[in-house]
Amino acid sequence: MSIPNFSDQDFHTRLGRSDLTVTRICLGTMTFGEQVDEPTSFAILDRALERGVTFIDTAEMYPVPPTSERFQLTESIIGRWLAARPQARGRIVLATKVAGPARGYAWIRNGVADLTADDIVAACEGSLRRLNTEVIDLYQIHWPVRNVPAFGNLYFDPQREQPMTPILQQLEALGRLVKAGKVRAIGLSNETPWGVHEFVRVAEAHGLPRIATVQNGYSLLNRSVDNGLDETLFREQVSLLPYSPLAFGLLTGKYDVNGLEDASRPGRLSVYESMRKQRWGRPEALDAARLYSALAREHGLTPTQLALAFCYRSARVASTIIGVTSVAQLDENIDAWSVAVSPELLAAVDRIRWLHRDPAQ
């Protein structure tokens, strides 16, 4: 089986100004090692390649929800998959991320609220070993190394400022990895317009590697990218890799009737109480999701098809990161590539957003 209704040109794109060309769908792996056991992870990876999806994203932090016991396990699973299938490495573009400042996680660099240049290099070396590879195609900083509103925090608070590793030193560390041939291209995640612009400015001023990508949450329930970051990405030629296009399952419709604790439809928000306390579990996020589900059905689509097609067909998006827990779910998400979204449907989507904005921001 192959991906339906696409041309090679349509389904591949270049990341930023880098030399990386990737598929427009990226397999996210943060469920591997927690919700998804190793044999199923292998089956999902095999199926992705069979369907033509050759861009794979992971992180040293994964799986999610993060725990000290499973920290870095996802990378190890992928590394074992690559070891068992040596021919696969040449077919895939492999991305991973170094965790940012600890954010209260004591098992990340002993809980230190910073990420030094040496930390970046050491973390990359660890990822290379776990992934069983000599080079990481795209190496990203998972969240900013500075005081910044992220992960559901809406407002910048100057009172939280403290000394942290400057962007120049972060770029110098990444530059060392690129020069050593251990990393091909670099990127950011959970970044702001200022952060993206500053990384580009500093890199160009000092002859250091230029970021190719930024990986931020982007979905029908979180279009904060469209509030200024979109202009920055366009003008600086940085590619957007949206994660959580289904908003942790809210946009699949499975919680529409019985809410987030519906044990009959197990998903991250029903299984993990800690995740319901985050931005995805806000009551207003579920309220808006129900409206998008109803809109999809009015137009003959499933909620999943509408949510994914919105990202897949957006001019702002380079490659959409999909996270799945089964081969069947992977097939469903890939099949949504063939779904067209009419201008009238997009206008109806915008009308909902005008009233409900970005409840999962």
Number of strands: 10
Total tally of structural domains: 1
Low-confidence runs (pLDDT<50, min 5 residues)? none
CATH superfamily annotation: NADP-dependent oxidoreductase domain
Helix content: 25-40%
How far the N terminus sits from the C terminus, by CA atoms, comes to 36 Å
The CATH top-level class label? Alpha Beta
Following the backbone from N to C, one meets helices and strands in this order, namely EEEHEHEHEHEHEHEHHHHEHH
Radius of gyration: 19 Å
Query: How would you describe the shape?
Result: globular
Mean pLDDT: 93
Structural class: alpha/beta
Give the percentage of residues in beta strands: 5-15%
| Architecture per CATH nomenclature, i.e. the level-2 architecture | Alpha-Beta Barrel
